[in-house]
Amino acid sequence: MNLAMNLDTAARPRPHSLSDLFWSMTWLALQGFGGVLAVVQRVLVDEKRWLTNEEFIEDWAVAQILPGPNVVNLALMIGDRYFGFRGALAALAGMLVFPLLIVLAVAALFASVADLPTAKGALKGMGAVSAGLIAAVGLKLVGALKENVMTLGICAVLAAMTFVAIAILRIPLAWVLLVLGSTAMAWAYRQLGVLADQSGDGKTGGEKTGGKTP
Fold first, then answer.
1. N-terminal to C-terminal alpha carbon distance within the chain
2. 187 burial class (0-12, 13-18, 19+ CB within 10 angstroms)?
3. CB 37 within 8 A of CB 69
4. How far from the centroid of its chain's Cα atoms is residue 10's Cα?
């Protein structure tokens, strides 16, 4: 099974070079101003197919709990996965160089119109669009949770509890991550242990059966 997974990973599309990785991350970053989740999922999973939906969910979850911007953490992980330390640097440069230049230029231009009602309304509209895109991607990725060790039901309960804690009870994010994140990790660890035990029992049973066969 592991051999099949390795062969599948080797046959999957991947960045051809550090230059390809750099420009891919640059294009991704330039598309994702203000709300990157929808763009990242579409580019990395649907277009380039560097990740499956299941892998994207797992990698994005890790990127979220690491310090720093989520998409930058994900870019570092992907760059390191394919090209090691050089790949991580190339992906990081792609994420930051051109967006930084654009942000500086926009900040200089926006300073003169920031107080205008039209500019404020435009920002609110863009915020609503970003929220809608993120919600759409979340719904699109729900199907991938069916194969997750956490199970879809547990993930739904944790999502609901997180929403209530942050949006309604206004509990600080750090405490929500500490409590619910630790609970989720403990449950996942337990489920992985159960799966390992079941796999071991099946292997032992097969060996016993094989020993009785003439």
1. 27
2. middle
3. no
4. 21
Residue in 131, 136, 183, 139 with CA at minimum distance from that of residue 162? 183
Q: Transcribe 141-167 into DSSP letters.
A: HGGGGGGSTT-HHHHHHHHHHHHIIII
pLDDT for the residue numbered 92: 93
> What long-range pairs does 37-43 form, CB within 8 A, spacing at least 24?
37/70, 37/71, 37/133, 37/134, 37/137, 38/133, 38/134, 38/136, 38/137, 39/133, 40/71, 40/74, 41/137, 41/140, 41/141
Find the mean pLDDT for residues 81-109: 89
Q: Which two tokens stand for residue 182?
A: 């630790």
pTM: 0.59
pLDDT score of 58: 86
3-state secondary structure of 121: helix
For CA atoms 29, 82, 6, 11, give the dihedral sign.
positive
Largest CA distance in the chain: 87
* Distance in angstroms (rounded) separating the CA atoms of residues 30 and 96: 10
Render the burial of 96-112: b for 16+ CB within 10 Å, e for the rest: bebeeeeeeeeeeeeee
Q: Directed axis angle between helix 152-163 and helix 182-212, to 10°?
A: 170
Q: Which among 154, 146, 24, 30 has a CA at the least distance from the CA of 79?
A: 24
Three-state DSSP at 34 gives: coil
Q: How far apart are CA 173 and CA 190, in angstroms?
A: 25
What letter does residue 177 receive in the DSSP assignment?
I
